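Weekly structure sync, notes
Attendees: PL (lead), two postdocs, one rotation student
Agenda item 3: pending single-chain targets
PL asked that the sequence for the first pending target be pasted directly into the notes so everyone works from the same version. It is reproduced below exactly as submitted, 313 residues in total.
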Amino acid sequence: MKKRLGILPCITWLTAAMWLWYATPAAALELKFNPVAPGVYAFIGEIGSRTYANEGMNANTGFIVTDAGVVVVDSGSTYRVAKQIHNVIKKTTQQPVKYVINTGDQDHRWLGNGYFQQQGAQIIAARQALADMQERGDSLIESLATELKEKAKGTKQVLPTRLFDSEEKLQLGNTAIRVLHFAGGHTPGDSVVWLPQQSIVFTGDLVYVDRLLGVLPFSNVKHWLASFDAMEKLQPKIIIPGHGKVCDLDKARQETRDYLRLLRSHMQTALQQGVDLQTAIDTLDQSRFKYLQNWAMLKGSNASRTYLEMEME
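Predicted structure, written out during the meeting:
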């Protein structure tokens, strides 16, 4: 009996310790926004997959501080992340967030909208993004809830309310901002945020560097290339890509445009010669892009989806 009584305090202590472990709030992701130019800040996300630790922020976002308010470029993956973005902004400036621009239809581009809407911000996106957001929104949230668990709490579909077809112009004090939709690409609603005075462009998912881009079931490689060509005509000096480090136009050409061109060129030849899908995939040499992260994981599906896209043209 004495032995059993001696064990009880240990069991009680262990139970209490486990309860405290589960009750402790999960550590927040530390969002670091670095200045790219005066008033322009960028968060460079991880280039791997979405994880519990990175809270789905395996992508880049940013914000622009003007003398008449702040513009957020992509609201983040969840309500919680959006709040963290705002906390960084409040440490940077006393200006309120006036606008949030969603550069695309992927989760990390718009699922933080709900938080910023509560702060009184207008949410802007290309009209072409809306249908895809409505169609995939529930599944995106469900997927995030599975991966992020309690970190996804409070995240809901909050759609953009200020829509545009090809261009939306914003003038905040002395700062001119142009939001441009060309032809989509990675997602139907892909847009860029162009700062003509600084020659800086936030490209959203039209540009991937440091990691291989992903051609998804709703992507369109032909449209993607057309959008890249249109963005290229802006001749930006600084590119804040959707994924990867801040770069110049040459790097964006090498790691996004040239890869997309390779996919289409090879698959066009394969289809002209009547080659079947598997043979077309097997004969595509993508090795010059092997240095990019996620190459092994994505190269096969990228090739397959490009072939199937072109087969329907």
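Discussion points:
- The chain has one domain: 22-249.
- Residues 1-25 have pLDDT under 50 and may be disordered.
Action: rotation student to compare against the earlier draft before next sync.
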